[in-house]
Amino acid sequence: MIYVGCDVGSLSGEAVIIEDDAIVMHDIIRVRTRPEQTALEVTQKALAKAKMSFDDIDYCVSTGYGREKIPFAQSSISEISCHGRGAQWANPSVRTIIDIGGQDAKVIRVDKYGYMVDFVMNDKCAAGTGRFLEGMARVLGVELEDLAALSSGATSPVALTKTCTVLSQFEVLYMLNDGVDKINIAAGINRAMAERISKLAKRVGIREGVAITGGVAKNFAVVQSLIEVLGVEFVSLGDVDPQIVGALGAALFAKERWQKARQREATPAGGNKDTKNVCT
Amino acid sequence: MAEYSDRKDRTITTRWQITGDLAKFILTQDLTHLDDWGGKEAVREVLPEHYQKNFDLVQTDLVNCLLEEKNRKTAMGFAECMGNWGDWFHSQLDQGKKVIYHYFVHTIEPMLALDLAPLCLEVLSGLSAALYTDGCEEGIDTMHAEGYPDHLCSSNMGGAGFLLKGYVPQPDAFLKGTTPCDPSNRVYEYLAHKFNAPLIVVETPYYMNERALKFLTNEMKRMIGKLEKIAGKKIDEDKLRESIKLSNETGEYILKIQELRKLVPCPDTGWHRPADTIFTAQMGTPFSRDYFKGLYEVVKERADKGQGVIPEGKKEIRLAWGYTWECFDLPFFNWLENKHGAIYTEDCLTLFPADYAMIDTTNMETMIEGLAQRLMQVPMARQAMSWSDTWINDFVDVARAYKIDALAIGGHMACKHFWALNKLLTDKVKEKTGVPALRFEMDMMDKRFTSPSELKRIMDDFFATF
Amino acid sequence: MLILGCDVGAITTKTVIFGDDGIVAYDITANNGNLTKVVEKSVDNVISKAGVSLDGIDVKAGTGMGERYIPFDHITEGIIKCLAVAAHRIHPHTRTIVDMGGLVTTAISINEKGKVLEYRTSDKCASGCGFFLRLAAQALEMKVEDFGKLILPYEESAHMGTQCAVFGESEIVSHINDGVEPEKIAAGINHSLGRSVTTMINRIGGIKDIVATGGVAKNKGVIRAIEETLGMEVITLSSIDEQLLGALGAALCAQQRVQQG
User: Fold this and answer.
1) pLDDT above 50: residue A236
2) Chain B nearest C-alpha distance from A203 (Å)
3) Are residues C103 and C182 in the same domain?
4) Closest partner residue to C131 among A34, A124, A166, by Cβ?
5) Could you read off the pLDDT of B21-55 as tens digits, one per residue?
6) CB contact, 8 Å: C133 with chain A?
7) Average pLDDT over residues B175-197
8) pLDDT tens per residue across span B284-294
């Protein structure tokens, strides 16, 4: 059985294909103009890499922004549930997930089955989200991917005093004009990100088994800063790319939904109680 | 060499003790600025080892501000009183006295008369913010992690967070007069809940009249009854009298200094004004009395000579602060004097009414009524709690009596009381006295909201319009 | 006497040379790259337009948030005062100035003598500013200058729910995704900006004549939106480019200072 999960975010879109209990293929692309386009493209790419087609999909669940608009998805589920599920599958000891996306940041607590117990989200303010880093990368004149490496060896990270992402960018601009070393500025940026996220995380409470997901999880400098600020080590997600955790969770839900649908078919409503349930 | 406690639950108070001693040490050395000896690092090297770590924490600008000639005597008085208070408080703890965390509106005479050890939550926030580079942000963030939004008053948050972190002793009870606001009540309620400790509430009225006084006197009696239960004994009338006599004496000095600030040029410096609140919270102790006595002597000496506190040749700009100030950058007020010639006349939080000193110590009845009267009149709370005319009239009076040139209001961002009234206040003051106002947002305790450099920029822009 | 006034703002640097008969020359340069170099370039431009040399300038003044990057000796003037002095000089009936700059919006009330009575600045949040307009223009693939022409009634404009400069960009993208015409989105943005500026004016109790300055004042759509919400006329000064008031004010203030000895 082939199950697909598709997660369309504000900056990137992901698709994950699972077969039985393993991830067969995944892909990540930058968002297109419309969420349907993003979903279609990323799923197509993942399928192509796995030498499959849309016809091979038994069930598809979509999540993220615009999830209801995905025509080839049978159902859509919130990204909070999907993240919880996906992370817990990648490492069963996960109980707290810090998801830092392009435009929002979430902290989700789950139980041992991966179901959400509590969560908090920041979607009102760009500080502490991928956007913050994007803007900073622009001001520093580097690619977003290179921002992490920039802070290596920083001796005196700067302290950013402005909350607003836009005002922060100007603060950094002025530091550059004052000749402050980019390395120290980058380190200060990481610290500011980490502190913002840490504040959010504490509102829900950190339980042991903390995983970090979302695009920003690939920024090892921010992750390192978070480890320092929170005072916890993150658990590994194994081979699972932290950015695909949402799509993975969606795929897992796809499996679950497909199985439930099959069970319902086998036991008709008002049912013949003599019929044995043939589905496992 | 003093013995400093390394108990976790005395972290904050021990820090203050050490800073007090450290300040005394530095102030008796021959330097007027850390750079005289090569800067902070160099000075650190020559300090006795047990002061070094504390020195790292103290704000550099503050040290240099205290070393300035005009500030030294007051700084020494502050250091001495803070150090002495620290020693005394720890000795109370060592004697096993019960710890009562109280809101700043309460003066502590009844608690002293019951051999209790009082500690003001807001002073925990304010003094930490004033002295140290890390301020009380850790406390504030801890409370935020408990679910308190960042738009509620940080004055309670700092100390509350420290309590949650165990940096101060476990509470035996909490004391909260309901003035001026519900959010502050909630914090105390929360803490009482969290620590399973009794919360003694003193319900304060919105009005300030005979009926209110009667009600409040009754409330004070109830409060004493509850405190007695915690102390396990009846209140000692003589001890109460002794304490109130001290606080009366303290109050007299405070009021005299207040009068002297009306002079032109103003003979009082600004850096210590936020710090004064710490010692008004200790009214009833000899430390508080000593501090204000020392301050009075310094101010009187200048006043007698017709001396001001701004550099020669600068025109004095007389500022009043219409609400509270910031606690995290005391040298800012010194900077205002030195750079702009702007002196500090009054602010809402230390504006004492004329009858604050006069508690009649004849008997228990008169003393309790006097304490009630004082609670009803406590600065800032009375303006915030009661109706708009209190605040407005107070500042129209201040504008006239202190001959101010401008009203600056760094509105504490969390305070709805103030913000609901801010424009009405400045409009009325303007209408009646012609004095212009500057209104801007800041947080009293959290320097991350409006940073010290932002504050200076705001004031630079403001003075340019003069 | 020739006076140079330089206003280093958030997004642009403005320089004017002011003589006995008024403004001799001016320059507006975008803040791209090193700010000191930008200032030097702006100054070079203006002195060559005026046909003078820097040494030929009698007094140099500087203002604005980036004033400290002005490399040559100059008198520093506070931006609030500069705006007040300049607006009053050009239009003596001015009683309220609303400066809509790249990053900050300021509302100032002055008296008949041009003295500042009160002012408020939006210094915690970059919403409603030039910086946001630029991002919006990029997202809509339009020129910022064309925004001003897009004046539509509020009901016909796209609704902009967020004030935030960062999230506003996403809101624009989602409108585009929903097939809303760019013109309606731009009109919606004008309304949104108009609202936040109006609040600022009301906060200081702005009375007429209300003069709008700063780069965003060039956007007639925003001006119209403010007028509708405020119920009062908002003037833009025809004799001077809206962005130059700060620089002119710096020159005038410095001149006053020098003349008073």
Assistant:
1) yes
2) 5
3) yes
4) A166
5) 999 999 998 889 999 989 999 999 989 888 999 99
6) no
7) 94
8) 999 999 999 99
| Closest by Cβ to C170, choosing from A103, A167, A174 | A103
Neighbours of A, requiring at least 3 CB pairs below 8 Å, are B, C
Q: Looking at the structure, do residues C115 and C84 belong to the same domain, yes or no?
A: no
Contact C177 A170 (CB under 8 A): no
Residues C229, C244: one domain?
no
Please name which of A105, A194, A190 lies closest in space to residue A140, comparing C-alpha atoms.
A190
Domain shared by C98 and C220, yes or no: yes
Nearest CA in chain C to A124: C167
By the CB < 8 Å criterion, does C1 face chain A? no
* CB spacing of A202 vs B141 below 8 angstroms: yes
Contact across the interface for B426 and C118, Cβ inside 8 Å: yes
Question: Do residues C249 and C5 touch, judged by C-beta distance below 8 A?
Answer: yes
Which pLDDT does position A270 carry in this prediction? 53
Nearest to C202 by CA among C182, C230, C223, C181: C230
Contact at CB, A167 and C66, closer than 8 angstroms: no
Give CA A199 to chain center in angstroms. 19
Tell if the CB–CB gap between B461 and C84 is shorter than 8 Å.
no
3-state secondary structure at position C31 = coil
Residue type, B42: A
Q: For testing the chain B interface, which of A161, A163, A167, A229 should be mutated: the one with the most B CBs within 10 Å?
A: A161
- C158 and C41, same structural domain? no
ipTM for the predicted complex comes to 0.81
Q: Are A223 and A47 in contact, with CB atoms under 8 Å apart?
A: no
- For residues C88 and C106, give the distance between their C-alpha atoms in angstroms, rounded to a whole number: 16
* Amino acid at position B422, single letter: N
C123 pLDDT above the threshold of 80: no
Confidence band of C178 (pLDDT split at 50, 70, 90): confident
Residue B1: pLDDT band (50, 70, 90) is very low
Contacts of C199 in chain B (CB under 8 A): none
Nearest CA in chain A to C104: A167
> Does A199 sit within 8 Å of B145, measured CB to CB?
yes
List the single residue in C69, C103, C124 with the smallest CB-CB distance to A170.
C103
Domain extent, residue C5, equals 1-91+238-261
Domain ranges of chain A: 2-86+241-266, 93-230
Identify the CATH number of the domain defined by range A2-86+241-266. 3.30.420.40
Confidence class for position A268, pLDDT limits 50, 70, 90: low
Contacts of B461 in chain C (CB under 8 A): 78-81
Report how many helices (DSSP H) and strands (DSSP E) chain B contains, helices first: 20, 8
The token duo for B8 is 């976790």
Whose tokens are 């919400």? That residue is: C229
Sheet holding C234-235, edge to edge: C116-121, C105-110, C96-100, C210-213, C234-235
| Helical spans, DSSP H, in chain A | 35-49, 79-90, 130-140, 147-150, 165-177, 182-204, 220-230, 245-266
Among A30, A36, A26, CA closest to A4: A26
Torsion sign, CA atoms B208, B213, B214, B216 = positive
pLDDT of B2 higher than 60: no
Query: Residue B361: what residue type?
Result: T
pTM of this prediction? Answer: 0.81
| Total domains, chain C | 2
Other C-beta atoms closer than 10 Å to the C-beta of A276 total 8
- SS3 call for B321: strand
CATH of the domain at C65: 3.30.420.40
To which CATH superfamily is domain A93-230 assigned?
A: ATPase, nucleotide binding domain (3.30.420.40)
Q: Which helix (H) or strand (E) holds A3?
A: strand A2-8
Are both C102 and C81 inside the same structural domain? no
The pLDDT value recorded for residue B441 is 86
Mean pLDDT check: name the lowest of B197-201, B299-303, C85-89, C191-195.
C191-195
